[in-house]
Amino acid sequence: MNWLDLAKLALRSISSHKQRSLLTALGLIIGIAAVVILTSIGRGIHSFVLAEFTQFGTHLIAVYPGKTTTFGLSGATISTVLPLSTADAASLENLDHVLAAMPMVQGNARIEAGNKQRRANVFGVGAALPQVWQLKVDSGRFLPDDGLDNPRAFAVLGSKMRTELFGNTHPLGQRIRIGSDRFRVIGVMQAKGQMLGFDLDDTVFVASGKAMEMFDRQSLMEIDLLYSSETSAETVEQAIKRRLIARHGAEDFTIVTQNQMLEKMDSVLSVLTLAVAALGSISLLVGSVGILTIMTIAVSERVSEIGLLRAIGAERGMVFKLFLGEAMLLSLVGGSGGVLLGVALVKLAAAFVPALPVQLAWNYIVAAFAISLFIGIAAGVAPAIKAARLNPLEALRAE
Fold first, then answer.
1. Which pLDDT tens digit goes with each residue over 83-122?
2. Nearest to 213 by CA among 88, 89, 107, 66
3. Which of 229, 318, 324, 336 is buried deepest, with most CB atoms within 10 A?
4. What totals of helices (H) and strands (E) does the chain contain, helices first?
């Protein structure tokens, strides 16, 4: 009996017990579908977060006050840490290969315009923000480069903030109050959307010096630098370190390149995707138990059939292949059905819930399908061996 004959016989045996075979395959179908759905959500979140980090460009370096790595220094030494200032930002902007440097301070304040008011994020930034963060002005202009000492009380509104405060009224030239200070609106930004929980459209942009006074801060929260694409991030990072050490007298700051941020985020999110895949794989183990149980029952129910096959000349190897083929066929049907069901559900989710980031992770899908086949083989081996070892005379006598 060749492999084709064995496949036909295994298919006929499975089809003769449709309900039992369907319930057996259902365990694998649900398991594979769970892996497909969970890994698609994990991969979607992975791509979504990385896209959020790169929407401002890919040649950015951020400098933060304070050193994140400790060296066992005393508390007295910590007090000598100098704050990041707008003068530091101006100095870094003069470095080779640095295209623009932008100081940044962020806080929350009450915004008032006429009889309307709301609380929102206020970003204290520099004139280079449109270039560094790749934002565009919709109307008016962005903050001018007024220098460090006396920035003017100008404000630029996000698109949502403009609508909330002024409706259909033209906001340029209008006065608003931020906290206790008054500002004149000189521009409105184009819609940008959210970035990791921050709604950049529901914000107000003012000069960093004004924001430091408003929030009573002695240091910038960060300095963002845009560097030339023809230069490596490591070269610019070393130049920044040398310049700030010369200005501060010590390395009391932290430099984070965008590549470092992306690598860390990528590793964390890859672990997340692997974790949800492992969670979905638990269902595959349940499916393997189902196949093992059903095939064991099938051997017990078909003792006389096995005896007849052995009596007419079937060798033990053929009986083993027959029952193993049934297990493989069940796992093949279950795996294929699970992949089709999972992909269909992911496509439906993408169509009807566009806010949910999903992306098919084909490497995990192929791995899950291969594992389902392996599970079918592994679960079918023990019953197949039991069937092959039955004594023909005793099997016939069981009739």
1. 888 889 889 999 988 999 999 999 999 999 988 888 999 9
2. 107
3. 324
4. 13, 12
